[in-house]
């Protein structure tokens, strides 16, 4: 698996980063919505489109809100194909476990 440098990490309005969909370093094209969403105003809202796979990532308050990106490592390239889907599911569940963990910590204080 290729090592990811901090300069490759997704960041709001960055010209290029490792795409959360295709996992390749690629140029990102940014767009924004300048109209208020219902009666709420969302600061620093943007949509980035990957130049390689053309999938979109959605950002609010300078944070990626879609797709949800796990902090867990990507599966190793030699991982057996029958295990890879389960590994990917586990990466996604980690997002919710960490959120649940923080909720439990806040409630307990
Ligand atoms: Zn992509």
Largest sheet: 5 strands, antiparallel
| Distinct helical segment count | 1
Radius of gyration over C-alpha positions, nearest whole angstrom: 16 Å
* Topology as a string of helices (H) and strands (E): EEEEEH
Mean pLDDT: 78
Extended strand count: 5
Distance between the termini: 41 Å
Helix content: 10-25%
Overall tally of domains: 2
- Which range does the strand content fall in? 15-25%
What ranges have pLDDT less than 50 throughout 5 or more consecutive residues? none
* Small molecules held by this entry: zinc ion
Strand order of the biggest β-sheet: 1-2-3-4-5
Q: What best-fitting shape do the alpha-carbon axes yield?
A: globular
Structural class: alpha+beta
Written account of the structure:
The chain has 109 residues and is of the alpha+beta class. The protein folds into two domains: 1-69; 70-109, no CATH class. It contains one helix and five strands. It has one helix at residues 84-108, and strands at 16-18, 25-31, 46-50, 56-60, 63-66. Strands 1-2-3-4-5 form a five-stranded antiparallel beta sheet, with no helix packed on it. Strand 4 (56-60) and strand 5 (63-66) form a beta hairpin. The radius of gyration is 16 Å and the shape is globular. The model has no long low-confidence stretch (mean pLDDT 78). It binds zinc ion. Zinc ion is lined by residues 19, 21-22, 24, 26, 50, 52-53, 55.
